C-alpha cells in the first residue's frame, strides 16, 4: 500500500459531468443505506452530529462508513483522534478507508493533506475530489454510509445530490435561533428541489448542560428546530444539548457519547429501515 498524496487530486481537473454515475453506483453497490448530513449555514455542529451518528449507529451493531466531504474545513479526523493519520492506497490503486474499529471507517481530506495546509482550490477541482471519494474508495460492504457535507447549498451538496445513487435521504442540522432557522428552511427546499428524501431535522445546541448541577440553560432558545420541522412538514429527530463533555472529547479525539445522540441514531435507523 502507498500513502495517498494531495497532488493526485490535480491530475484530472475538469468540469463536473454525469459520465461517472454508473461507476459510482457500481462502487457503492454493497452499501445498503446512504445518508447525507447537511446544514444551511456553518457553525451549527453538523460534523459533530455526523460523527456521533456514525459512532452511535455503529454502536447499535451496524457496519458504518463516514465520508467527510468538507474539503476546506475537514474536522472529522480531529473528532476521532486520527488527525495524525494518512489514508493508504490498496494494491489496485484505490483508496483504503481508515479503520477506526473493525466496523467503522472514515475517509476525509484531513487524512490526505499535510496538517494545517489550506485547500486553495476552485470548484472543478473540489468536484473531482468528491467524485473520486465516491468512485475510488474501497468501502466494501456497509450497512450505512454517512456523508458529512460542507454547509450551504453550493457546489459540493449539489454534486453529491446529483451523483449519489439511490440515497436514503438527508438529515438537516440546525440550531434553535432564528438566523439558523432561516437557513434550514432553504436547506429543506434545496433538498426537495433535488428530489432527495428528507429523513428528518435535528436541533443541535439545544440548551447548555451545566457541568456542576446538570441544569439546562437555553442559551440559543429552544424548540425552534422542532417548530421549523412542523412548519415544513418534515420529521423531527430530536434535540442535542450543548454538553462541555462533547467539546472536551472532540478536542481530545475521543468522541464522547451522550444518550440524546443514541436516541437520535435509533430514530434514524427506524425511519430508514421501516421503508
Q: What does the overall shape look like?
A: globular
Major sheet size, sense and barrel closure: 8 strands, mixed
Helix content: 25-40%
Strand percentage, roughly?
15-25%
List the helices and strands and how they pair.
Layout lengths: L20 H7 L3 E8 L7 H14 L4 E5 L7 H4 L8 E2 L5 E2 L1 E4 L2 E5 L14 H14 L5 E7 L6 H9 L5 E6 L3 H16 L4 E6 L4 E2 L6 E2 L6 H8 L4 E4 L4 H9 L6 H15 L2
Parallel strand pairs: 1-7, 1-8, 2-6, 2-7, 8-9, 9-12
Antiparallel strand pairs: 3-4, 5-6, 10-11
Helix pairs in contact: 1-4, 2-9, 4-5
Tell me about this structure.
By secondary structure, this protein is an alpha/beta fold. The chain has a single domain (19-273), classed as P-loop containing nucleotide triphosphate hydrolases (Rossmann fold, 3-Layer(aba) Sandwich). Helix content is 35%, strand content 19%. It is built from 9 helices and 12 strands. The protein has helices spanning 21-27, 46-59, 76-79, 123-136, 155-163, 178-193, 224-231, 244-252, 259-273, and strands at 31-38, 64-68, 88-89, 95-96, 98-101, 104-108, 142-148, 169-174, 198-203, 208-209, 216-217, 236-239. An 8-stranded mixed β-sheet has the order 5-6-2-7-1-8-9-12, sandwiched between helices. A two-stranded antiparallel sheet has the order 3-4. It has a two-stranded antiparallel sheet with strand order 10-11. Helix 1 (21-27) packs parallel to helix 4 (123-136), helix 2 packs across helix 9 and helix 4 runs parallel beside helix 5 (155-163). The radius of gyration is 18 Å and the shape is globular. The termini are far apart. The model is unreliable at 9-16 (pLDDT under 50).
Amino acid at each position: 500500500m502507498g500513502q495517498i498524496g494531495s497532488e493526485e487530486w490535480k491530475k484530472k481537473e475538469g468540469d463536473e459531468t454525469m459520465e461517472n454515475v454508473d461507476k459510482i453506483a457500481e462502487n457503492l453497490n454493497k452499501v445498503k443505506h446512504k445518508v447525507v448530513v447537511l446544514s444551511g449555514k456553518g457553525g451549527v455542529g453538523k460534523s459533530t452530529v455526523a460523527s456521533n451518528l456514525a459512532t452511535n449507529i455503529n454502536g447499535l451493531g451496524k457496519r458504518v462508513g463516514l465520508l467527510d466531504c468538507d474539503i476546506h474545513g475537514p474536522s472529522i479526523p480531529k473528532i476521532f483522534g486520527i488527525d495524525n493519520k494518512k489514508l493508504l492506497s490498496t494494491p489496485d490503486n484505490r483508496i483504503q478507508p481508515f479503520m477506526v474499529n473493525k466496523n467503522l471507517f472514515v475517509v476525509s481530506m484531513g487524512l490526505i493533506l499535510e496538517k494545517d495546509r489550506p485547500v486553495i482550490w476552485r470548484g472543478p477541482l473540489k468536484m473531482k475530489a468528491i467524485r473520486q471519494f465516491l468512485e475510488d474508495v474501497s468501502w466494501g460492504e456497509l450497512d450505512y454510509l454517512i456523508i458529512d457535507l460542507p454547509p450551504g447549498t453550493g457546489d459540493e451538496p449539489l454534486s453529491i445530490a446529483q451523483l449519489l445513487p439511490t440515497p436514503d435521504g438527508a438529515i438537516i442540522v440546525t440550531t434553535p435561533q432564528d438566523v439558523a432557522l432561516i437557513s434550514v428552511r432553504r436547506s429543506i427546499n434545496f433538498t426537495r428541489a433535488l428530489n432527495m428524501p428528507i429523513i428528518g431535522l435535528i436541533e443541535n445546541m439545544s440548551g447548555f448542560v451545566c457541568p456542576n448541577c446538570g441544569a439546562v440553560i437555553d442559551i440559543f432558545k429552544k424548540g425552534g428546530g422542532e417548530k421549523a420541522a412542523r412548519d415544513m412538514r418534515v420529521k423531527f429527530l430530536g434535540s442535542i444539548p450543548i454538553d462541555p463533555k462533547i467539546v472536551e472529547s472532540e478536542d481530545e479525539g475521543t468522541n464522547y457519547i451522550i444518550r440524546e445522540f443514541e436516541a437520535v441514531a435509533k430514530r434514524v435507523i427506524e425511519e430508514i429501515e421501516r421503508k
